[in-house]
Amino acid sequence: MSAYAPRSERKPLYVKVAMQPALHGCWAVNISETGIGLIATPHTASEGPHEGEDVELSFSLPDSGEHIRVRGLVRWRHDAAGAVAALGVSFRAFEDSDGVKLARYLASSHLQVVVAFATEQEQRLVSAALEGVAKLHFAAIPAEAHALVTRGDAACLVVCGQDEEQALALVESLAARRADADPSGAGPPSDLASRIVYCAPAAPDRVVALFNAGRIFRALGPAPTREALHQAVLQAGREHGVRTEQWRLALELERSLLRERALSQALPAAPGGRGSEEVGFRSAAMHRVMELVRLVAPHRVAVLLQGETGTGKEVLARILHRLSGRGDVPLVVQDCGALSETLLESELFGHVKGAFTGAVADHPGLFVLANGGTIFLDEIENTTPNLQAKLLRVLETGDVRPVGGTQVRHVDVRVVAASNKDLGEEVRAGRFRADLFYRLNSFTVDIPPLRDRPEDVPELALYFLELFNRTLRRSASGISPDTEDALRAYAWPGNVRELRNVMERSVLLSRPGEVVSRRLLPPSVGATLALRNEPNGDGSLRARLERVEREFIREALERHGGVLRRAAVALGMDPVTLGRRARRHGLWKADD
């Protein structure tokens, strides 16, 4: 039996998050050892980080109060109507032992339940009903209940006691607090709020009104049975998590639809006079890739695209879709690493009403929506063995059965999958099903990283310059020769996605009509060329660090017009220290 590696489990976490670059009203939604889901209320769509950018996050864990500091990468971002943004961030590096702190928190965390106003007898009942499945927090007064509910991880609030007015007042005050928080960005939206199980006395018409208004999740009456309380709290916890993920999923789907609509519009003419699907593909390696794409496009064969992150797998999937004869039907895109197994299965195959808590209507699923067209499954290596078996069945038979349903629907869908890893190695390691791999492996296209095809870099850079001139309403007039040299010399660990972000930044920083020069590039890009330009110099670590330091100081001084104090602020240095180092490198004179 294969030993499949478990996926990193996501758990709810609703705490305020400090982010750099700054993003207003940023809250965590869920978290795992490898990433975090965020929501925010930015003042403008350009505020904060965008897809492919590095971020620094800082937040506190509930209960322990331990502080976590971590650097990460924005995997996706969507700004929806109503000034709400959703982001998915993957973790890259924790500060000190913060990764261990987070792992310890995730391993020990349980369903968090707040119990308000319970008598001694009710406390014994709740403890017996939820023993081993939830961590209980008891509150004797409204202020304690408010503090526990808003600390960030309480999925359910059980309201007990014999004081009807006190119990109802707590429910109403929590609802009012959520309503006040939503438009200001001072707290998470109401979908993230703790579900309320009401076990206190109240008139039937009052309970019905609260239930219809969505202010309570269940009403069990003043003397619930142990089993009824157990089931109600577990259902509240499940519904809490599902609704949160559905809320984020709706934003991500909206993002995908808007992206598809934008891509269907005319792109700027490609440099070199070729079609937009071949932009930047000047290297022999990418010519071979395009030959393979054109060869397989007309045939209903599953295609596997393999390559490092940022190499343009989704771009190639769109080209393949356009050349397949199915271009009149939209391409449906799904990131398999963005959702838990249950939600991903529901999203791909659909579900029927009542299949699970929160399934308030039938959902057809992406395979049905893509019928007659193409579905692109990105990061397919993140799927679980159970889901891989169901994907294999769809590939082999075309039959799709929704979650909770009995009827099977036949679909005609071209499947294009992508992976950042070598799936053959994943099979040998027991993390991916061999039968699905061999089904996908009938036609594999390996996409080379950008560092292996430097001849593609200048034309891609020019293409992105024209693209961002149009979208950002700028007028950068070209790229200087030394900038082209710097772009070619850089290793591009983020591949085409990183080059795209560098050019977007450069166009934003450029003055009207300015040629993009090295001063507009990030220091790390220019520093690589500085090292390569001195092949015969001292190769020691100290000498290399000196050359990198000189490049960073030179770039900062150029960017800030030679004003030492401004350059020092940008570099986070003391002006006196910066002046001393700049003079040592010959970049500054004492009388300047």
From TrEMBL:
GO molecular function, one term: cyclic-di-GMP binding
Domain of life: Bacteria
Keyword DNA-binding included in the entry's annotation: yes
Gene Ontology BP terms: regulation of DNA-templated transcription
Gene3D superfamilies in alphabetical order: 1.10.8.60, Homeodomain-like, P-loop containing nucleotide triphosphate hydrolases, predicted glycosyltransferase like domains
Keyword Glycoprotein: no
Family matches, as PANTHER family: PTS-DEPENDENT DIHYDROXYACETONE KINASE OPERON REGULATORY PROTEIN-RELATED, TRANSCRIPTIONAL REGULATORY PROTEIN
Protein name: Response regulator of zinc sigma-54-dependent two-component system
Species, as recorded: Pseudomyxococcus hansupus
